[in-house]
Amino acid sequence: MTNTAARRVCFALQVKPERIDEYRERHAAVWPEMLRALKTTGWNNYSLFLRQDGLLIGYFETADLASAQAGMAATAVNARWQAEMSEFFIALNGSPDTGFLQLTEVFHLEDQLDALTTTATERSTS
Q: Order of strands, edge to edge, in the sheet holding 55-62?
């Protein structure tokens, strides 16, 4: 079932090639306090994908991006995590959780399927 209240956010960052292995290690065991803070502040279904050359793609769902970012900014654990993570990235404009390049969604299967269903329903009731 599609959650229409959630906004899908996808972003890109570039990890320094010489830091890729360490970046993977750090994300294999994220601090429990950081994990709980992300969930509590609205970063849901959050995943990171890393290509061999360091291209990092992140994805999460949230009701409100600005509120999710503000919620994390208000936590002490996020300040510590972002300070440590910022050194892993090339051409970072700000901290990793706010300085990422947000990508524009151009296709979502469930949205298009829902539109087909809505259109079919409207035709059958006309």
A: 44-50, 55-62, 7-14, 101-103
